[in-house]
Amino acid sequence: MSLMLKLLSMTLLLSSFVYANNASEKVEDFLDDKFMENSRLKSVDVTVSDVVPLKQLAGWSAYIVDVEVYLKVQPKKLIKQRMIWFSNGRIITKKLTDMQGGESLIDLVKPSFKDEYYKKENLLFGNPDAKHKVAIFSDPLCPFCRDLVPGALDYMKKDPKKFALYYYHFPLDRIHPASVQLVKAAVAAELQGHKDVIRKLYRLQINPQERDIKKILKVFNKEIGTNLMPKDLNAPAVIKKIDRDLDIANAVMVEGTPTIYLDGKVDKTKKKYLKVK
């Protein structure tokens, strides 16, 4: 669970609330007030970025909401979270599920992967004009990523005319704290000109709970062939790249790893690229 969701769950314990108006401004005001009931928050800004009418439920719409929070304990640190709420003008709720197929309606209204998110610096290999674009959000210490991502990279690298593969760092800091420093090291190494860094990340053997940056760098430097120092990991260019990846992940509401998009649409099977002709 993200820090934002953890904070908000302390105040939003009910699945639905009585609500008097269907305007986006009222949704913003309502959520703003509810979130501010959390005594740990210094300020909250709620903005409805999009409204999607639900075909499955007449009179209901999905509200894509951007939330920006400052904590009292970290008054200068801005935390951003994008989420989806449903409302019919009187009731507002976080979840709606289709009883026929068992599918969460959130999955049907999540933002698509826009062309502007395909950044040059995220292109791992392939031609930008390739027939198919694949975007992967991954944590190198996530066991599911380690099982799937290396094979996917190897498969798509063989056909650069068919696939343009874009890679985005999404370290799960609460589950694998070591991955935060590892992805910083990977970006720093790439900025120094080292090649095939991402693929090598998945060969690293390290305790995912490790927090000692010197121990993490010792393993990283040995495997990648670098000589990075702790200060290199906090260089402005490194932080900028990581933050950009996380901003894109937030924009398309990535919640876990690995998350794979094929031609702008999320691939729940994570293997549709194998069926591309």
Fold and architecture overview:
The protein has helices spanning 3-9, 24-35, 106-109, 143-157, 178-191, 197-201, 213-224, 236-251; strands spanning 16-18, 41-53, 61-71, 78-87, 91-93, 123-125, 132-138, 163-169, 259-262, 265-266. It folds into 2 domains: 3-109, Nuclear Transport Factor 2, Chain: A (Roll); 115-275, 3-Layer(aba) Sandwich (Glutaredoxin). Helices cover 31% and strands 23% of the residues. A hairpin with a 6-residue loop joins strand 3 (61-71) and strand 4. With 277 residues, the protein is α+β, with helices and mostly antiparallel strands. The strands form 2 sheets. The protein has a 5-stranded antiparallel beta sheet with strand order 1-5-4-3-2. It has a 5-stranded mixed beta sheet with strand order 6-8-7-9-10, sandwiched between helices. The protein has 8 helices and 10 strands. It is globular, with a radius of gyration of 20 Å.
Provide keyphrases for this structure:
277 residues, alpha+beta, Nuclear Transport Factor 2, Chain: A, Glutaredoxin, 2 domains, five-stranded antiparallel sheet, five-stranded mixed sheet, 8 helices, 31% helix
State the share of residues found in helices, binned by percent: 25-40%
Distance between the termini: 37 Å
Number of domains: 2
Determine the strand fraction and express it as a percent band: 15-25%
Biggest pleated sheet? 5 strands, antiparallel
Top CATH class of the largest domain: Alpha Beta
Number of strands: 10
Radius of gyration: 20 Å
How are helices and strands ordered from N to C? HEHEEEEHEEHEHHHHEE
CATH architecture of the largest domain: 3-Layer(aba) Sandwich
Write the CATH fold name of the largest domain: Glutaredoxin
